[in-house]
Write a structure and sequence with these properties.
alpha+beta, Dna Ligase, domain 1, Nucleotidyltransferase, domain 5, 17 helices, 50 strands, 35% strand
C-alpha cells in the first residue's frame, strides 16, 4: 500500500490498495476499506469523528483510472456502511469494467475540517458525480453504467418486500440494492438505495394504459422512452448559454478619423503616391514628390496620427480590406515594437488594432474598413447621404512612368477619365477658366475630398443609427455585428437564443446551407417569353413569419416520429429542431427540393438530387418535403422550443424602409440592416487567428499552434495565420462569439421552403432559380405579386434568355440586354453567349487580374485570359444530336454516392 505521509484536512488524497491484476472480488473491497479506516483512525484523536468525502475508483493495468461510485459523504464511524455501498456499486457496474485487469483500488478522499469561510459539513450525504462516463454498449438498459429495469412492472425488478396502493419496496436479486417506490395512477417515483443511502432517483411515466413496458423514464436531465420493452428514444438536455441583452448607449461617440490613398500603376505595379487624413477639423496631406520613397510617405502619414490625441480612435478607410490595407500592413508593422493582431475573416480585415508607445505610455488605433459597414461606392454613399460629392479625377493619366508628379500643363484628355459623360468633362474643363492643370493640386484636392466625404457620410450614419437605436457604430466593425447589436439592445427581450459551439455547432452546421441556385432548362422556345421574379426581402420575410429555435437544445437518439403525431402516443406533437435522417426522394420529381453536399469533379458541391442519402435538416424543411413524396428515417438530432423572435426587429426596420424615399439615408440603412442580421448567427466559432511578429519568434508559434500560412513582410516581421488546438470538451472556457447556428440554418431553410412553392407550380415551366428569384415561362398568378414583404416583384420580361450554369445567364428585353456572369468584371454580350450552348465550346475573354502582395506592399495588375464554358456539376446536362445543350435532369444518389 502507498500511504499519504500525514493526515491533512480539506485536502484531497489518494489511497492505493494493490490488487496485482487479480479478479476484483468483494473481499478486496472490504480489505481496502478496512486498511483505509485503520490508516485514518490511527492518526486522529479517539474522540474525534470527522466527516469523510470519498469516491471509489479502479486503476487498470493499462494505467486507466475509472470511477466506480458516486462521491459519498459520511462520518468515520459509519465506515462499515461503505463496504456494502461500494460493493453494490461494483456489482451493478458495466460488464466492460470486468474485462479489464485491475491493478489497484483507489480511494480519493478528503477529511473535512473547517473551510476558509468557517463552514463545515456536519451530516452524511451523497453527492452524485456527473463525470462518471456512460456505458455505450449493453443489451440491458443502463444509466451511467448502472443496470436498471426496462419495465414499469416492479414485480419483475426483484423480490417485493412490501407493497401497498401507494408504495412498494423491491429488493434487487443477488444484490443489497433496494428500490423504494411511490405509486400513482400512471407514475412511479423511485429511489435506488443501499441501506439508507440513495444512489439514484428516477421517475417512470406510463405511455399507454395496461402496457407496463411502454413508458418514459426521467433521470436528472435525461429522458428514456421505451416502446414494448425496447429503448426507442434517448433524450439529453444540453445546457447552453444564451444571447445577452446590451444596454442602450447614453451618448454618441465620434472618435474616428478617415484616411484615403491615391494610387498609380507603373509597369503593372500599383503603389500609393498621395495620402489624406481627416479628423473632422483638419486635413493632413502627404504627396510622394515630397519624400524619398512611397514607404517614407506612408510612414509619415501614420506617424502623424500616432499621438495621445487620437488614443483609441478608429481609422476608417473605404475598402481597407482589399485595397488600402495591402499597402499599409507592412508599414504599420515597422512603426511599433508590439505585435499586431489583425482580425481577418474570409480574407477581409475586420479590425486591425495598432499599438504604439510614447514615453513608455501605450496607445492604440483601430484600423477599420468602412466598406464593411456601408458596402457601396463612396460616390453612391455621397448621393444617398446628401453630402459633398466625390470629385472628378483622371485616374489613367498618372499611370505614365515618364510623367512628373509635379506636372503642370494642359487638362488631361477625356480618355483618361472613367465613368464620366462628355458633358461633365466639358464642364470640368471650363471650371479651370484657361488656368493650367496642376497634378499635385488636383490629386490632393481629390484625395482630400474623399476623406471629407467619407467622414461626413459616417457622421450622418452614426447620428441616424444612434437616433433610431441608441447604438454607437464605432463599436462594431461590420454591418452584421452592428445589426446584432441593434437586435440585442432593442428587440432581444426575454428570448432565449442559445449560443452554440463545439460538437453542437458541428452537428447542426451540417444542416446549414444557402439558397438553391440551379439551371433546369437552358433556353426558351422561339417566341416564348421568360419572366424573372424576385422575392421582396426573402430572408427578413421568413425571419418575421416563421418560428425560430430557442431554449436549451435536447439531444435525442432514435426515431422521434415514433412518438409524434399519428403514432398513437403524440408525446412530441410536432418535433421541432434539426434531425439527422436517411432520405429517400421520390423518383418522379423533375425539380427536387432537398439539398445535400456531394464530392464532384469540381470539389464539394451543394446539389438537389434524387435517390437515397443521409443528411441533417431543419424539421420544417422535412415536413414540407414529406408533402411532395419524400420519405425519412430519423436517426438522431436536437429538439428546440420555438418562438417568433424577429417580428419586432423586422417590423420596425421594414416600416422605416416603406416610409422612406428610395435613395435616402433611412431607405439605405433599413435595406442594409434587414439583410445583415441572420448570417451573423451562422459564423464558424473556430476562427483562424493572425499575428504580425518578429520572424525570430515564428518558431514559437509553429511549435504551439496549427499554422496555416506564413507571409514574410521582408522587414524582419512575418504575418502568421494559425488555429489554436482546441478541446471541444472545454467549451465553457471559451469567450462567447454570440453564435447560434440553429438560427441561421432555420432562416435559410425556411427561405427554401418558401421558394419550394414556385418549384412545384402546375402548368408553369421553371428555367432557373437563384436564392430569391425564379425565371418562368408565364406570369405568376396575382396572389403572389405585390410590394409587401415576401411577395414577388417582376424584374424582367425577356424575349429571349439563356441559362448556362448557376450565376451564368443572360436575356434580351424590348429595350435592353441583361447578362450576368459571376467572377467576370466585363460581361460578354448576349449574342456571344449563344455558341456556349454547344458542347465543348468556349469564349476567351481578356480580363484585368489583381494580385495583392502584402510582402512588398503593392498590387500587381496583369491581363489574363478568362475561359468561359458550360461547367455545371449540379445536374445532368442533356444534349441533342447536334451537341446542343437542351435540358437537364436531377443527379441520382445511391446511399450518398453519385451513380
Amino acid at each position: 500500500m502507498i500511504l499519504p505521509k500525514l493526515i491533512t484536512f480539506n485536502k484531497w488524497e489518494d489511497f492505493y490498495y494493490k490488487i496485482n491484476n487479480q479478479i476484483l472480488e468483494t473481499h478486496h473491497i472490504r480489505c481496502a476499506i478496512s486498511s483505509l479506516f485503520k490508516h485514518i483512525n490511527s492518526q486522529i484523536p479517539s474522540d474525534f469523528d470527522p466527516i469523510i468525502i470519498i469516491q471509489f475508483k479502479i486503476k487498470f493495468d493499462t494505467n486507466q483510472i475509472r470511477s466506480v461510485s458516486f462521491v459519498q459523504t459520511l462520518k468515520l464511524s459509519e465506515f462499515n456502511d461503505l463496504s456494502l455501498i461500494f460493493i453494490e456499486f461494483w456489482n451493478i457496474k458495466d460488464t466492460a469494467y470486468f474485462s479489464l485487469k485491475p491493478s489497484d483500488i483507489i480511494f480519493t478522499y478528503k477529511i473535512q475540517g473547517k473551510e476558509p469561510n468557517g463552514e463545515v459539513i456536519k451530516e452524511s450525504k451523497l453527492n452524485r458525480a456527473d463525470s462518471v462516463k456512460e456505458s455505450k454498449e449493453s443489451s440491458n438498459f443502463k444509466f451511467k453504467g448502472y443496470s436498471l429495469p426496462s419495465t414499469m412492472d416492479y414485480s419483475e425488478w426483484g423480490e417485493v418486500i412490501s407493497e401497498s396502493d401507494t408504495s412498494a419496496i423491491v429488493k434487487k436479486a443477488k444484490s443489497s440494492l433496494n428500490y423504494h417506490i411511490q405509486i400513482s395512477n400512471t407514475e412511479l417515483k423511485v429511489e435506488v438505495k443501499v441501506k439508507d443511502k440513495t444512489i439514484l432517483e428516477f421517475i417512470d411515466i406510463l405511455l399507454e394504459k395496461g402496457k407496463l413496458n411502454s413508458f418514459i423514464r426521467r433521470i436528472k436531465n435525461q429522458e428514456y422512452i421505451f416502446i414494448d420493452g425496447e429503448l426507442t428514444i434517448k433524450k439529453v438536455k444540453k445546457e447552453t448559454k444564451f444571447l445577452k441583452r446590451i444596454l442602450l448607449e447614453e451618448y454618441m461617440i465620434s472618435d474616428f478619423l478617415t484616411l484615403d490613398l491615391e494610387t498609380r500603376t507603373i509597369d503593372g505595379i500599383m503603389t500609393p503616391y498621395s495620402v489624406s487624413i481627416y479628423d473632422g477639423e483638419a486635413i493632413m496631406s502627404f504627396y510622394l514628390s515630397d519624400f524619398k520613397s512611397t514607404d517614407e510617405m506612408l510612414k509619415s502619414a501614420i506617424v502623424s496620427i500616432m499621438t495621445p490625441k487620437y488614443q483609441n480612435y478608429r481609422v476608417y478607410v473605404h475598402n481597407f480590406s482589399h485595397f488600402d490595407g495591402i499597402f499599409l500592413l507592412r508599414i504599420l508593422s515597422e512603426l511599433t515594437e508590439f505585435n499586431i493582431k489583425p482580425v481577418i475573416r474570409e480574407g477581409r480585415i475586420i479590425n486591425l488594432k495598432f499599438s504604439f508607445s510614447i514615453f513608455n505610455n501605450k496607445y492604440k488605433l483601430h484600423f477599420r474598413d468602412s466598406y464593411l459597414l456601408l458596402p457601396f461606392s463612396l460616390r453612391k454613399l455621397a448621393l444617398n447621404f446628401e453630402v459633398a460629392a466625390k470629385g472628378i479625377f483622371p485616374y489613367k493619366f498618372v499611370n505614365n512612368k515618364n510623367l512628373s508628379l509635379d506636372y503642370t500643363g494642359e487638362i488631361p484628355g477625356y480618355e483618361y477619365f472613367d465613368n464620366l459623360s462628355l458633358q461633365d468633362y466639358n464642364q470640368y474643363c471650363e471650371s479651370f477658366n484657361k488656368k493650367s492643370w496642376n497634378l499635385r493640386e488636383e490629386t490632393i484636392k481629390y484625395c482630400n475630398q474623399d476623406v471629407v466625404t467619407l467622414y461626413l457620410v459616417l457622421v450622418k450614419f452614426q447620428k441616424k443609427i444612434f437616433a433610431l437605436f441608441r447604438v454607437n457604430i464605432i463599436k462594431y466593425p461590420t454591418l452584421a455585428s452592428l445589426s446584432l447589436a441593434i437586435y440585442r439592445s432593442q428587440y432581444l427581450g426575454d428570448f432565449k437564443i442559445p449560443l452554440i459551439d463545439g460538437n453542437l455547432f458541428t452537428d447542426i452546421k451540417k444542416g446549414y446551407s444557402g439558397g438553391s441556385v440551379d439551371v433546369y432548362k437552358p433556353f426558351s422556345d422561339k417566341g416564348e417569353k421568360i419572366y424573372r421574379y424576385d422575392v421582396n426581402s426573402l430572408y427578413p420575410f421568413v425571419m418575421r413569419k416563421e418560428y425560430m429555435p430557442v431554449g436549451n437544445p435536447i439531444f435525442f437518439e432514435g426515431d422521434i416520429s415514433l412518438i409524434s403525431r399519428g403514432s398513437g402516443y403524440d408525446l412530441d406533437t410536432n418535433p421541432f429542431g434539426f434531425f439527422e435522417v436517411e432520405v429517400t426522394a421520390p423518383k418522379s420529381l423533375r425539380i427536387p427540393l432537398l439539398q445535400t453536399r456531394i464530392r464532384s469533379e469540381d470539389g464539394i458541391r451543394t446539389v438537389s438530387p434524387l435517390g437515397t442519402w443521409k443528411g441533417t435538416y431543419f424539421s420544417e424543411e422535412i415536413y414540407n418535403a414529406i408533402k411532395f413524396g419524400y420519405k425519412f428515417k430519423i436517426i438522431r438530432g436536437y429538439l428546440f422550443e420555438k418562438q417568433k423572435i424577429f417580428s419586432g426587429f423586422v417590423d420596425f426596420i421594414y416600416d422605416l424602409k416603406v416610409k422612406s424615399k428610395r435613395g435616402t439615408p433611412d431607405y439605405l440603412i433599413s435595406k442594409l440592416l434587414l439583410n445583415s442580421l441572420y448570417g451573423r448567427f451562422g459564423m464558424n466559432p473556430e476562427m483562424e487567428h493572425h499575428v504580425i511578429i518578429s520572424e525570430d519568434d515564428t518558431s514559437k508559434i509553429i511549435k504551439a499552434k496549427t499554422v496555416t500560412s506564413i507571409t514574410n513582410l521582408n522587414n524582419g516581421k512575418e504575418l502568421i495565420s494559425f488555429f489554436d488546438p482546441h478541446d471541444w470538451d472545454l467549451e465553457n472556457d471559451k469567450k462567447s462569439l454570440n453564435i447560434s447556428v440553429p438560427i441561421a440554418a432555420a432562416v435559410t431553410s425556411s427561405a427554401r421552403v418558401h421558394m419550394s412553392q414556385f418549384k412545384t407550380l402546375k402548368d408553369i415551366e421553371l428555367f432557373y432559380t437563384d436564392t430569391d428569384s425564379i425565371d418562368i415561362n408565364r406570369p405568376l398568378p396575382s396572389k403572389y405579386i405585390g410590394e409587401e414583404l415576401g411577395l414577388m416583384k417582376l424584374e424582367h420580361i425577356f424575349n429571349e434568355a439563356i441559362f448556362l450554369a448557376p450565376k451564368v445567364y443572360g436575356g434580351v428585353t424590348d429595350t435592353y440586354e441583361y447578362v450576368k456572369i459571376k467572377g467576370l468584371k466585363n460581361p460578354i454580350t448576349f449574342e456571344e453567349m449563344k455558341p456556349l450552348l454547344f458542347k465543348d465550346q468556349s469564349v476567351e475573354i481578356n480580363q484585368e487580374k489583381w494580385y495583392r502582395n502584402i510582402s512588398s506592399g503593392n498590387i500587381n495588375i496583369k491581363q489574363e485570359i478568362y475561359t468561359l464554358m458550360i461547367n455545371n456539376f449540379k445536374r445532368k446536362l442533356i444534349y441533342n444530336s447536334q451537341n446542343k445543350f437542351i435540358d437537364t435532369s436531377p443527379l441520382y444518389l445511391n446511399n450518398g454516392n453519385k451513380d
